[in-house]
Amino acid sequence: xxxxxxxxxxxxxxxxxxxxxxxxxxxxxxxxxxxxxxxxxxxxxxxxxxxxxxxxxxxxxxxxxxxxxxxxxxxxxxxxxxxxxxxxxxxxxxxxxxxxxxxxxxxxxxxxxxxxxxxxxxxxxxxxxxxxxxxxxxxxxxxxxxxxxxxxxxxxxxxxxxxxxxxxxxxxxxxxxxxxxxxxxxxxxxxxxxxxxxxxxxxxxxxxxxxxxxxxxxxxxxxxxxxxxxxxxxxxxxxxxxxxxxxxxxxxxxxxxxxxxxxxxxxxxxxxxxxxxxxxxxxxxxxxxxxxxxxxxxxxxxxxxxxxxxxxxxxxxxxxxxxxxxxxxxxxxxxxxxxxxxxxxxxxxxxxxxxxxxxxxxxxxxxxxxxxxxxxxxxxxxxxxxxxxxxxxxxxxxxxxxxxxxxxxxxxxxxxxxxxxxxxxxxxxxxxxxxxxxxxxxxxx
Amino acid sequence: xxxxxxxxxxxxxxxxxxxxxxxxxxxxxxxxxxxxxxxxxxxxxxxxxxxxxxxxxxxxxxxxxxxxxxxxxxxxxxxxxxxxxxxxxxxxxxxxxxxxxxxxxxxxxxxxxxxxxxxxxxxxxxxxxxxxxxxxxxxxxxxxxxxxxxxxxxxxxxxxxxxxxxxxxxxxxxxxxxxxxxxxxxxxxxxxxxxxxxxxxxxxxxxxxxxxxxxxxxxxxxxxxxxxxxxxxxxxxxxxxxxxxxxxxxxxxxxxxxxxxxxxxxxxxxxxxxxxxxxxxxxxxxxxxxxxxxxxxxxxxxxxxxxxxxxxxxxxxxxxxxxxxxxxxxxxxxxxxxxxxxxxxxxxxxxxxxxxxxxxxxxxxxxxxxxxxxxxxxxxxxxxxxxxxxxxxxxxxxxxxxxxxxxxxxxxxxxxxxxxxxxxxxxxxxxxxxxxxxxxxxxxx
Lengths: 445, 445
What we know:
The structure is a homodimer. Chain A is of the alpha+beta class. Chain A folds into three domains: 4-66 and 92-176 and 274-357, FAD/NAD(P)-binding domain, CATH 3.50.50; 180-268, no CATH class; 402-445. Chain A has 16 helices and 19 strands. Chain A has helices at 4-8, 10-15, 45-53, 57-64, 98-110, 160-165, 230-235, 239-249, 251-257, 259-268, 293-296, 305-322, 327-357, 363-378, 386-392, 397-444; strands spanning 23-27, 41-43, 66-68, 70-74, 80-84, 93-96, 115-119, 121-127, 132-137, 143-147, 151-153, 172-177, 180-187, 201-206, 211-216, 222-229, 275-280, 283-284, 288-290. In chain A, the strands form six sheets. In chain A, strands 5-4-14-15-16-13 form a six-stranded mixed β-sheet. In chain A, strands 2-6-3 form a three-stranded antiparallel β-sheet. In chain A, helix 3 packs across helix 4 (57-64), helix 8 crosses helix 9 and helix 12 (305-322) runs antiparallel to helix 13 (327-357). Chain A is globular. The model of chain A has no long low-confidence stretch (mean pLDDT 90). The A-B interface holds A 158, 163, 166-167, 169-177, 273 and B 158, 163, 166-167, 169-177, 273. Chains A, B: GO terms for molecular function: FAD binding; kynurenine 3-monooxygenase activity. Chains A, B: Pfam families: FAD_binding_3. Chains A, B: InterPro entries: FAD-bd (IPR002938), FAD/NAD-bd_sf (IPR036188). Chains A, B: It comes from Frieseomelitta varia. Chains A, B: Its cofactor is FAD.
């Protein structure tokens, strides 16, 4: 009994070991409405490993993934600055269409006779202790009672399963909306049916308090998003306000998208909100488990949400192996291993918004980044930058952050040493003069 | 349309200015089950001011409140240490029976013809935008539709109104359970029908990781509570385990309560959980408002929860006066003025558990407390200790904490000065010796 995107993944992964289960996937709609609904998906190693485990990595990455080698920063004057994600080992993240991924996952799940797919099903109530659910058919408007041995709530950021768990004692939970919203905008194909900008980068227009980003699609368009305080978005009341704002902040986008299309796309949509979810525990007894966004929805600024969701399932698969499918052991262990890590990545995603919209343009950030790259190039197994541990390794999220803190400490100490050395070198001539003076004075005494 | 304890208060307070309202109080039960349900209520200035505004202070404080002048700490060896709440101005907090307070508030509300009381009513759904509610009658099991101009959700820590608001965008909310539980225990009357311990104190048995407390009741009994990690409580499986634990930790209580009654009371009840709630905003448009525990339930360790709830209503009353009952202005202002303060007191209540169970026995804490008292006595209008600002003033909770931080800073600086002075004084003889030596050497040169 599982739900939604991470849920679509279960059928394949959890049965690959020929386990004695029947899996019922109850899904709200066959293909999620992918336009204006959410930001493009970024795929990296955690998601890829999960896809690899069920033989889907190739078809997703090679056939439909668009490699993004780094960030491309757009300054107001139209100049560009490339910032590679991994200039040493050449790792990339991949822009993947949500629609395509949905189809691949559903097709894969459908191949297993033990998997049954039910569409237009919405959970409206559940007894998370005994596995009894009430499911609404959104087409026929009928409600059916269903019984499951295990409920896996992969039902997204606004999870009904989590809301039901939140009524139980000792379930901690927080939902935080940031005070910024976003609107999706689209960059059309360029001349000769090619990308209008580099198709190998995640494009960012960092402007301090707000930003635009754009990810390449495989039809050679880009899906862009403006992220800004609701206060800023609210001020763009008329097409005129909006266009003069874009003229000032993002003049190159005005060229690429065209005034008319830009205005149409923007005013067609309401700004959307961004939520971050933390909760603990993720399970109830041996009956109910939260995974994916239902357990740890995060703001999209680290591009790691889907990867973390897929990694949940990979961890679950590993625990099923270790504990021989005994869910009374698996579920508490899942909570134990995953909660703190998920909280850590939720916070990091929040921090990365500030990095993307503001810090990337600052000298201190650029200095730190070049130091990181310098050391990473010389001692690539010892000095791994934060972004690489998050996106290109399966290091626990907590350890990624601890590793970054260790690096900060080392660099601070080196900084002090260098400062003392410089002071010493600057002082040396005076010390020599004094020494000479003393020598003279001794001589003449 | 209001609910529960803080709600019982509305009828009286909000109508005292002869306002043109009808108020419908829908209440889950006439008198809350007060035994084993919750800790005794502590009443101090914020709650008293609200009661005073409707002429109820005297009947609650003078006739039924039991003045507690301070903490009485019980050591393991049976020795006692008194710690006054306000040794300068003699302010007290009052132990008040929840049952009695309920009756007083309901009787007062009933006197207004504009107030209608409905019992055994439970909200099951609400449209917080248009004021339409579904109310269940818990006796007849019938559901009625109700329409209100303003919904005031005073429906407690597990508020249904808040849960409905949590489904709306941009509503931030967190629920945190601490990993400690509590069990209520009762100290019977002593000889000659008098208090078995001092009836003028809040008794504490601080034991580091856990503690017992006891508050005097007006029938000369005490309501006690053991607060401890669930792990510790879980280990007390048999009466034998329990008694040997009490023999070691709280031998005087074993005497006062008696072994048999203690075991009976403890094993009759399951340990209860302690929840802390923060959310923001407290309102939706001009239609819905959260107050009291529904908005900011806190752990009970500062004894300020009910006072903060009553103060909400006092603030609301003040805003109704200021904005001439225009709720489109009142409700956003309430959120603006109250949210951060409530978050601050929730955190302080959490901290005070550590103070009560552990810090009170430490030398550093006792030193700080005597410094506080010393300065408070000398400059009582400038140096007001934290506890006094919280319980004996209506200073904003944020300002109480800022005031404490300022005091910490001052004391740290004084500490440094004193340390330098002492070092100076200790060094003085050596400096003198050196000076003398120099004087000699000069003499003989």
